[in-house]
Design brief:
The protein has 129 residues and is mostly helical. Helix content is 56%, strand content 0%. The protein has 5 helices and no strands. Helix 3 packs antiparallel against helix 5.
Length: 129
């Protein structure tokens, strides 16, 4: 029973590490000495940036005046949503909140002082049927 529990936890850790590594590749490259706690603090700063704007405002209208949020948006490569429309602050804030949740979940399993360089290279997940 313990082996199954350990195996399940190891799988959960591996999946979360890969998700976090994939979602924050640019930030991780710039911050190789950082910890998961540092990444969480960055994401919380991004969330605060987003909260200072109306959730219906278009990112493209404010991109040049953003602080941490602009760095976060580098991961997306653009400021558009899934339909190709200019994304709103509210739309991307949902992404930030998901990212914060994933990092918090990983911190619960490996600790806040876990070095991000130990996340490993992102591996594209296999398609599910």
């Amino acid at each position: 029973m313990k082996t199954t529990t350990r195996s399940k936890k190891a799988t959960e850790v591996a999946l979360l590490k890969n998700d976090v590594a994939g979602a924050h590749q640019t930030w991780l490259k710039k911050n190789r000495r950082a910890t998961l706690g540092d990444l969480l603090a960055f994401l919380q700063d991004v969330n605060d940036d987003f909260l200072s704007y109306d959730q219906d405002d278009l990112l493209s209208d404010y991109i040049h005046g953003l602080g941490y949020a602009a760095e976060y948006l580098e991961e997306w490569g653009d400021v558009y949503d899934e339909e190709g429309e200019s994304a709103t602050f509210g739309y991307r804030q949902c992404n930030v909140e998901e990212d914060i949740s994933r990092v918090e979940d990983l911190i619960e399993l490996v600790g806040e002082s876990f070095k991000v360089k130990r996340l490993g290279k992102w591996k594209k997940p296999l398609p599910t049927k």
